[in-house]
């Protein structure tokens, strides 16, 4: 039994949100052919039909839009059946010395017993049939939950937590500027959690960046795809732009102008693919290109919303979340991306917009952008897809 999170606040859009959540659940459980899914107004029922609950549990933990869920047994709406099923569930999990309580919800108010009566009758039955039972109302070890609904009674004593958030796809589509570092995968996770269907835009600069740097970005996308089913990955060649900027512009503005080109390209891809916004992994004050002055100078090239989910998080918070979602160990592998390869030693921390525009006027901006767009490579990344040979990668680190 799956319980919805923020969907309860969505009013007239609730049906669409539940439909999207159901589709996302169907995708993550697609290979478990025996399973049947029944989405309803206030609950989703997943009938296992012999499928492994442990496998379903592992996957549901990564479906945004799920607040809580429980393995339940569906039983008849008779007092005898409720008592017998309750005892069966408790005997499977109860250990001597544990405390418990019974908590009933009654959606079917025509049922002959009210919640207090059921709590007392089932509690007494368990007390008579469990070894050394102890009742605790405030902080019990086990809570036996009985839900009396129109079609049947559902009983469980486990309450498991989903990731919350909104179903991916309910907040529209956007592009994510994904590097190979720690921050942008975390920003991607937070965007997905708010229901945004993201497509990854990754800039690579061969021969300055290796094939492993590109593979690393794709593999990070594969980890994040656990939360959305699959993600489109768009690789953008960036070497010519970086070479040209380094050759013709002052060192202090190399990073600013590079980032302005990146944002222009991300915006062109967004427009071409029907996105509504651009996300990135910038955190205020973390590096020279992420001061407010730098962000203002870079953002000047577009009116499209640029959203930064980790903008106010410090590095410790970002690392903790990266460890939780499983991207940290891969992010710290030293396969350098194009941002680090061409990073100037003394970038401007307070670049001026007029100066950035003046320097760009020395370049064939339109030609550089078009050639980069002509060279993009688009692929689909699926959950946990591998692109790095771990043995070869380990040898490279020695």
TrEMBL record:
InterPro entries: Rossmann-like_a/b/a_fold, ThiI_AANH, ThiI_fer, ThiI_N, THUMP_dom, THUMP_ThiI, tRNA_STrfase, tRNA_sulfurtransferase_ThiI. Pathway: Cofactor biosynthesis; thiamine diphosphate biosynthesis. Transmembrane segments: none annotated. ATP binds at residues 177-178, 202-203, 259, 281, 290. It catalyses: [ThiS sulfur-carrier protein]-C-terminal Gly-Gly-AMP + S-sulfanyl-L-cysteinyl-[cysteine desulfurase] + AH2 = [ThiS sulfur-carrier protein]-C-terminal-Gly-aminoethanethioate + L-cysteinyl-[cysteine desulfurase] + A + AMP + 2 H(+); [ThiI sulfur-carrier protein]-S-sulfanyl-L-cysteine + a uridine in tRNA + 2 reduced [2Fe-2S]-[ferredoxin] + ATP + H(+) = [ThiI sulfur-carrier protein]-L-cysteine + a 4-thiouridine in tRNA + 2 oxidized [2Fe-2S]-[ferredoxin] + AMP + diphosphate. Its EC number is 2.8.1.4. It is an enzyme of class 2 (transferase). This is Probable tRNA sulfurtransferase. It comes from Lactobacillus psittaci DSM 15354. The lineage of its organism: Bacteria, Bacillati, Bacillota, Bacilli, Lactobacillales.
């Amino acid at each position: 039994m799956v319980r919805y999170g923020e969907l309860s606040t969505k009013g007239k859009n609730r049906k669409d949100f539940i439909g999207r959540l159901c589709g996302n659940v169907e995708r993550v459980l697609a290979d478990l052919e025996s399973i049947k899914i029944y989405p309803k107004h206030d609950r989703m029922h997943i009938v296992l039909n012999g499928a492994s609950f442990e496998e379903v549990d592992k996957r549901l933990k990564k479906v945004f839009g799920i607040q809580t869920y429980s393995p339940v047994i569906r039983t008849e709406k008779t007092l005898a059946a409720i008592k017998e099923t309750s005892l069966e569930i408790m005997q499977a999990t109860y250990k001597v010395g544990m405390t418990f309580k019974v908590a009933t919800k009654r959606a079917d108010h025509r049922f002959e017993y009210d919640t207090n009566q059921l709590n007392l009758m089932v509690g007494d039955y368990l007390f008579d049939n469990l070894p050394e039972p102890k009742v605790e109302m405030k902080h019990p070890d086990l809570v036996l939950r009985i839900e009396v609904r129109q079609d049947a009674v559902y009983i469980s004593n486990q309450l498991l937590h989903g990731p919350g958030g909104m179903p991916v796809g309910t907040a529209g589509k956007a592009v994510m500027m994904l590097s190979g570092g720690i921050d942008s995968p975390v920003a991607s996770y937070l965007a997905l959690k708010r229901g945004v269907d993201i497509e990854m835009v990754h800039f690579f600069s061969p021969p300055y960046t290796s094939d492993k740097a590109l593979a690393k970005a794709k593999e990070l996308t594969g980890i994040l795809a656990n939360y959305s089913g699959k993600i489109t990955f768009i690789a953008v060649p960036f070497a010519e732009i970086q070479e040209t900027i380094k050759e013709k512009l002052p060192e202090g503005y190399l990073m600013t102008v590079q980032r302005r080109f990146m944002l222009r390209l991300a915006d062109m891809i967004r427009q071409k693919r029907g996105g509504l916004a651009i996300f990135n992994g910038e955190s205020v004050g973390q590096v020279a290109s992420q001061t407010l002055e730098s962000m203002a100078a870079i953002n000047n090239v577009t009116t499209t919303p640029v959203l930064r989910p980790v903008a106010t998080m410090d590095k410790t918070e970002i690392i903790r979340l990266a460890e939780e979602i499983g991207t940290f160990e891969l992010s710290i592998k030293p396969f350098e991306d194009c941002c680090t390869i061409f990073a100037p030693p003394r970038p401007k921390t307070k670049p001026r917009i007029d100066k950035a525009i003046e320097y760009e006027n020395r370049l064939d901006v339109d030609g550089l952008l078009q050639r980069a767009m002509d060279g993009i490579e688009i692929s689909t990344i699926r959950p946990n897809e591998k692109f790095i040979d771990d043995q070869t990668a380990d040898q490279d680190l020695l």
